[in-house]
Write a structure and sequence with these properties.
Strand content: 5-15%
CATH superfamily of the largest domain: Translation elongation factor EF1B, gamma chain, conserved domain
Number of helices: 15
CATH architecture of the largest domain: 2-Layer Sandwich
Number of strands: 8
CATH topology of the largest domain: Alpha-Beta Plaits
Number of domains: 3
Structural class: alpha+beta
Distance between the termini: 30 Å
Length: about 375
């Protein structure tokens, strides 16, 4: 996305192609074309270039050299801050951000050390902006700003709530200025600053044993008393439905027949949910997938005890939408959804379990879960079970 950001600032004439992260054969075929066998890469008449910063330097030299600095000193400073971002700030992601996505096992001691380093780096940036500069070098954006924005973005979205951001107001102002620019929105979509700090569960989860993990609920998942716990008892067995649904590897239609027989419309409700794209959003698969994942990551883990859903990315002629059909305890939108940072950008519609069209919508979203399936007028590209 950083390369997209740079190209939009430069108004570079580039044809972008999504390399689906789940299409291993396609990724491998692309990687063989790059000097480092890594993605992204830029194909030019002079040869191929890989690695984001190298691609951006090439594009800047070609379309607008001032993005790299206007003189020798500024160019050195641009390189200085690029290295600071990629060598120092980026390292902090491994212990703080990666565990949130289960990309790495969480280690509290290492995370605390990384956070101390990160705050020291933020102080350095805050001091740099204390001279009234709009951007890191001066009053014109440079590649250093683009790279810094990229590596700070996850922290701003997941790790720095407002009370912490207030401790570095100049960095926050700089960041918000970039995140609200047309070029950043077109490259990244909405950048939604976090309301509360996301923390990983301090447990090791085997991704191949999700069903077993669900069936044998981990005590740490239970927190303080949830308002949904004091609702009148329901005859619907949510856990039994989840187990049957997830263990059925073939035709799930029989499971859905039983679901409608057992469903308790007084104790549970069904909802259609859709993220409302900005005009510049929904054009890139990987970026739309990120919107889906960020929404799910912001849901309290405890909410899985009260809900089930399929949330996915659906395409229609190059236009991508994040949509899903959800079941949850109660008749209203719960606090877990309302407190999600993405809530104000969602359209959430209550479905009527007695309405044949609404029933069919639920069946289609929950049973047509193979890539390429047509659901509600769109083609499924990527989805996540929430259970």
């Amino acid at each position: 996305m950083e390369v997209l950001h740079t190209s939009y600032l430069l108004k570079a004439k580039i044809l972008f192609e999504d390399a689906d992260i789940e299409d291993i054969s396609k990724r491998n075929s692309y990687s063989q074309k790059t000097p480092t066998t890594t993605l992204p890469f830029l194909e030019t008449s002079e040869g191929n270039i890989s690695e984001s910063i190298s691609i951006e330097i090439y594009l800047a030299n070609k379309y607008k050299p001032d993005l790299l600095g206007k003189n020798i000193l500024e160019r050195a400073k641009v390189n200085q801050w690029i290295e600071f971002a990629s060598c120092e700030i980026q390292k902090c992601q491994q212990e703080i951000i990666f565990p949130i996505f289960n990309w790495k096992e969480f280690n509290k001691d290492l995370a605390d050390k990384a956070n101390k380093k990160l705050m020291k780096y933020i102080e350095i940036l805050e001091k740099q902006f204390s001279h009234g500069k709009k951007y890191i070098i001066g009053d014109q954006i440079t590649l250093a700003d683009i790279v810094l924005f990229r590596y700070l973005r996850f922290f701003m979205m997941l790790h720095f709530p407002e009370n912490i951001r207030k401790s570095f107001p100049k960095v926050t102002k700089w960041f918000e200025n970039i995140m609200n620019s047309p070029e950043a929105i077109e490259a990244y979509g909405r950048t939604i600053l976090c309301k509360k700090q996301l923390k990983p569960l301090n447990i090791k989860i085997d991704k191949n044993k999700k069903i077993e993990l669900f069936k044998n609920k981990i005590p740490e998942f239970k927190k303080e008393k949830n308002p949904l716990d004091i609702l009148p008892p329901s005859s619907f067995d949510l856990n039994g439905f989840k187990t049957a649904f997830l263990e059925e590897k073939g035709n799930k239609n029989k499971i859905m027949e039983n679901f409608w027989k057992d469903f308790d419309p007084k104790g549970y409700s069904l909802w259609f949910m859709e993220y409302q794209n900005l005009k510049r959003e929904g054009k890139k698969l990987f970026r739309t997938r990120n919107s889906k994942n960020f929404f799910l990551e912001r849901l309290d883990e405890d909410f899985k005890n009260y809900a089930f859903g399929i949330h996915g990315v659906y395409k229609n002629e190059g236009d991508y939408k994040v949509r899903g059909v959800w079941l949850w305890r109660g008749k209203e939108i719960p606090k877990e959804i309302k407190e999600n940072d993405y809530f104000k950008f969602l359209t959430i519609t209550n479905l009527n379990s007695d309405n044949d069209n609404d029933r069919q919508l639920v069946n289609d979203y929950w049973t047509k879960s193979n890539k390429g399936n047509k659901v509600d007028g769109r083609v499924l590209e990527d989805f996540t079970f929430y259970f």
